[in-house]
Amino acid sequence: MMKSLRISSFIFAGLLYLSACGQANEMESPTVSSFLSDDELLLEITPESITDIIPASESAVTLVNVWATWCAPCIKEFPYLVQLQKAYPEDLVVVFISADFPEDKPRAIEFLREQGVDQPSFLKTGKDLPFIAAISDNWSGSIPFTQLYLPDGTIVAEWSGEADLERFEELFLLARDKMVSSEIEIHAN
To answer: Count of alpha carbons within 13 Å of 78, Cβ hemisphere only?
Structure first.
């Protein structure tokens, strides 16, 4: 009985230690995306299925960002989007859509993991023009391209080109406030 109690205590202490180590590692790690397989982290999306993911939330602002690993402005602004989403987890959903070529999918997955993206993201498939038209009639196809949606699907801002963290946050906060007051007009250009 005593030996059984000691073994149980040893197992319990070991589990407690492993649990604490696991929590410490989770807190130190910038990403949880390692728990997602490559196919779960970067899902292929067609122009026809884009409307299924936008807007992504019924109670938060959705920010859609089209980017690619070969696009220097995209790479520069990407960490701002990750930071913004982590700062406002209840109010903002960020949807990343990679415009990388299919053969560059492994590179895009590696980049998402390096950036600490911990949610499924999307990879454009198919021809460019139907994809561009499915996202916005106002989009020329240049990237980065960003849109902000209210939960009802209303686009409150969209723009091509790089933005800094302050600009993303300013437009997001205006969109979030617009959810409360429909009298605010947002123009990103």
So the answer is: 24
Name the residue type at position 104.
Answer: D
State the pLDDT at residue 166: 97
The dihedral built from the CA positions of residue 116, 118, 119 and 124, taken in this order, carries a sign that is positive
pLDDT digits (tens, 9 = 90+) for 61-92: 999 999 999 999 999 999 999 999 999 999 99
Per-domain boundaries in the chain: 2-30, 34-180
1-5 long-range Cβ contacts below 8 angstroms, 24+ apart: none
Tell me the pTM. 0.77
CA-based end-to-end distance of the chain? 75
pLDDT in tens, 106-135: 999 999 999 999 899 999 999 999 999 999
The H or E element that residue 130 is part of is helix 128-135
> Could you tell me which CATH class the domain 34-180 is placed in?
alpha beta
* Residue 29 identity (one-letter amino acid): S
**Rounded distance, CA 143 to CA 160, Å?**
6
Contact between residue 176 and residue 91 where contact means Cβ atoms under 8 Å apart: yes
